[in-house]
Design a protein that fits this description.
This protein is an alpha+beta fold. The protein is about 55% helix and about 10% strand. Helix 4 packs antiparallel against helix 5 and helix 4 runs parallel beside helix 6. The longest helix has 17 residues.
């Protein structure tokens, strides 16, 4: 089960710089940390009581898509690209024999706002990003072939 407060705590403690300082200069290292936090969190996702079995396997795909997002140097573009990277990451995840569709919710502006507000404490920034990603995850539907049915991600 996906818990947004767990994601927020891990974003703050494992990815965001401490003391409200600047982000790391090494974009690949930052993308790897962010992808690890997201993949570890999404590994707890379920659909129709089936756990996500591909969250960790697809971490490198997510990391590769996060690199240009974190290197964009523009809050709006970074937020949208992080949301797009997460959308691509969720799409096709496996839950038993079920396959996840891309999230229907668009949360790029929400993520962008957390980067644009330079006065925002890291804890609030982490909470905003976690809420956005959680909203996106919950808007994904997993299709199961036999018998044909669908289930939301939770």
């Amino acid at each position: 089960m996906l818990v947004p407060t767990v994601l927020a705590t891990n974003l703050e403690n494992q990815w965001l710089p401490g003391g409200d300082g600047p982000f790391a200069d090494n974009v690949q290292q930052s993308a790897d940390k962010l992808a690890s936090v997201i993949a570890n969190w999404f590994a707890q996702a379920q659909a129709a009581s089936f756990p996500c079995s591909t969250a960790m396997v697809r971490k490198s795909q997510l990391m590769a898509q996060l690199i240009p997002a974190l290197d964009a140097k523009d809050a709006q573009l970074s937020g949208i690209q992080i949301a797009q990277a997460f959308m691509a990451y969720v799409a096709g995840q496996s839950f038993g024999v079920g396959i996840a569709a891309p999230p229907a919710a668009a949360a790029g502006p929400m993520i962008a706002s957390s980067f644009a507000n330079l006065e925002q404490p890291q804890s609030a920034r982490a909470q905003t990003i976690a809420t956005a990603l959680h909203l996106m995850a919950l808007s994904s539907i997993v299709s199961f072939p036999i018998p044909p049915f669908a289930s939301p991600v939770f």
